[in-house]
Amino acid sequence: xxxxDLKHAAELMKKMLDNFANNPEKIIDLFAEDAVIEFPYxxxxxxxxxxxxxxxxxxxxxAKGLQSALRDYKINPLSDWGCYSLSGSKKxxxxxxxxxxxxxxxxxxxxxxxxxxxxxxxxxxxxxxYWDGFYAMMVFGAITVKSA
Length: 148
Known about the structure:
Elements lengths: L2 H18 L10 E8 L13 E3 L1 H11 L3 E6 L6 E4 L5 E12 L5 E13 L2 E8 L2 H7 L9
Parallel strand pairs: 1-7
Antiparallel strand pairs: 1-2, 3-5, 4-5, 5-6, 6-7
C-alpha cells in the first residue's frame, strides 16, 4: 500500500464528511454507484437509525434527512485523525470526531468515530462507521434514561 493511497483516501473521507450533513449534494459523486454504508452500532430503523444504506440515491436521501436532525456538523481537522492502511488492500481505518447541534432543540452532539473505508478508482465503495448508538438515541429522544 502506497502512502499516497492513504493520503488520497483520507482527503476523500474528509471532503465527504465535511459535507455529509451540511451539503449532501456535494458528496454523491464521491461514492461509487453501488456504494454501501453500514452503521453496525446503529439501533436500527425502528429508532430512526438505519444499519445499512445501499446505492448513491439512498445515500443522498439519508444525508439530506440528516439536515432535519443536525446542523453545523463539523469533523475535527484531518491532522488530528488516526489514519491507517490495512495491509495489502484498498481498505483504510480512520479515527475522527464529529460535533453538531441537534435540530430543533439545539443540544450539543459529539461522537468519537471509527470508520473502515474501501476506495476503488477514486470513489468510496464501502463505508462502515462505528459510533455510540445509545448516546445518539438519548440525544435525539428515541429513549430516555431515568436517574437512579
